[in-house]
């Protein structure tokens, strides 16, 4: 478990974590390549070292390079971040959070998306959640 929560990371560190999560695993060069307005290669390596020291990343040596991976699985990190957002911005109400998401994405949801969401709601009802 990371020692400090994701929202306490500096902007560059957050960018790096988002890139590593998106790629699944990445070298310093791959991280730098994916960054908007990237700092120097050595600055990226320094950020990666800091993130590793704080427990956010781990590395493995592959051939002549280090490849970094998140220490927390993406689905677990996603749940943790979402729980934090629901607590902070919706006073712990999942219903209010879902309503806000539906309102935001109203025009982007396809009939298939709505059917899937309806199915998930039906399933939650059956399971008594």
Q: Can you offer a commentary on this structure?
A:
- The chain folds into two domains: 6-70, Arc Repressor Mutant, subunit A (Orthogonal Bundle), CATH 1.10.10; 94-129.
- The protein has six helices and two strands; from the N terminus they run H-H-H-E-E-H-H-H.
- A two-stranded antiparallel sheet has the order 1-2.
- Helix 1 (11-23) crosses helix 3.
- By secondary structure, the chain is mainly alpha-helical.
- The model is unreliable at 1-7 (pLDDT under 50).
- The protein is 60% helix and 9% strand.
- A hairpin with a 2-residue loop joins strand 1 and strand 2.
- The two termini are 27 Å apart.
Q: What topology does this entry show?
A:
Elements: H1 11-23, H2 28-34, H3 41-53, E1 57-62, E2 65-70, H4 74-90, H5 94-105, H6 111-126
Antiparallel strand pairs: 1-2
């Amino acid at each position: 478990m990371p020692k400090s929560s994701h929202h306490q990371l500096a902007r560059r560190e957050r960018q790096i974590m988002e890139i590593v999560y998106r790629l699944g695993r990445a070298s310093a060069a791959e991280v730098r390549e994916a960054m908007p307005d990237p700092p120097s290669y050595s600055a990226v390596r320094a950020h990666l070292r800091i993130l590793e020291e704080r427990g956010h990343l781990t590395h493995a040596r592959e051939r002549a390079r280090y490849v970094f991976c998140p220490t927390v699985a993406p689905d677990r990190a996603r749940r943790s971040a979402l729980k934090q957002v629901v607590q902070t911005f919706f006073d712990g109400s999942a219903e209010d959070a879902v309503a806000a998401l539906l309102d935001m994405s109203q025009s982007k949801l396809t009939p298939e998306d709505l059917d899937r969401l309806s199915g998930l709601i039906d399933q939650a009802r059956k399971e008594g959640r």
